[in-house]
What does this fold into?
Amino acid sequence: MALQPPAHIFRKCEGQCADSGGSLLSVLIAITLLAALSATVAKLYSGTLSTSLAGVQDARAYYLALSGLNAWSADMTGTYSLAGGTFTLAQSGPDAQGYYTVTSLGSYAENANCLLTAKRKSAKPITFDDDIEDFVLPVVGKTANSKYAVLVFDKDLSNAQSGWSESDWATLWAANASRYAGGWLRLGSDAKNTNGAVWYGGDHGVCPATPCPSGVCKDGACTLGKGLRAFFRFTFSCYDTSEDSTSCADGYTFAVIAADNDPATASGGPASGSMGELLGYAGPGPSGGGIAPPKLAVEVDTYPNLGKGKETEVNNRHDAGNENHVAVVYWGDNSGRNASYDDNAHGVGANPTAGSTGYVAKGKAASGPNWLEDGQVHALRLELHRAGAGTTSGTYRLKVWVDPAAAGLDDVTADYAAELPLIDHTTTLSGRYNTGLDVIRFGWTEGTGGAVQTVAIYDFSLDFRR
It folds into this structure.
């Protein structure tokens, strides 16, 4: 099996390098960079090979070993040929945090060997590029148009989604599949009265024992541990210049829900009638059970619902104004005030209100479109920081950035500190509401009513905090 390492890591020399000082400097720089990966280096030399790092064969052995670390994935062990040499991989673990200890022995010619040891995650981030096929069973409401609520365009033609014939789905897929590299979701599809949800349903990581380590998923049920980080891009096709932001509706959520309470068929929405403001997150949905708490979501809401009356009636989300807004929502009144219809009503239950750290709105400029309804590409990054997993009480800090711009904005393998978030909200959950989020599902929900929307979701990645 021949593997090619990334070009910026492997340095190829032919024969004797003329500039040995430059070679030494290059290798020292590479070692400094490697220190950031917490790798430790042990050199094995024969008696005939110079111990100088400037030795060409020695440097090649080092890069072979480094290439092995970069190529490794869980259970990839043994010897592999690469560019005139070999690297040999071995592993132990995973540990309680889901990390393996990986060793890579690079060998070049007869006498040059380099052994590198590093900790590696059991799995790389979940992405549309690698995992879009695990989002292909959206749940839709009972209205005739709900088949348009969530459409998943995989890179390969999948079986027809609910409500579609195979021939109609093939035609739709052919017209849309290549629009965004790696696959994408289309929400709303310019149809009235839709609601639906789509959840990740794949396997991710390795579970050596129960309970599984943080970040391990089985059929979409994932151990949350210390939290997660996610990034995706989105575009509202609507160009809404109305003063009250009512040309298009209603928005969507990215949601984290309890896997034990909510099957992969969970979705919100009204029992009947037109209530796009529920965003497919609140309400009883097609099953009658809705999405049961504990749960949390980031809602991207583009239609004002200013009423403060009964949440079972239209236009009662307690929005602060006409502006597009992004907010954290949990769930509503546990006493059953309005069943699950109040789960995204601001100020009900623990849901933040305008003016808090969990709600941000941006007004329309004097001319031009509303904040997010401008037909342009926007980016959303969120981080859920959790403390108290498996205990009687836990804290949940949700940080959200819209259109971050600094380096690392889409790197979900590390926390993002380059910019302050637009939203930074913390809540405490106790008892079954805390332990209920030990194992979660994640995905998107959507809703439209009398007005319509088309939203593209793409370039998605997610990793778990460990």
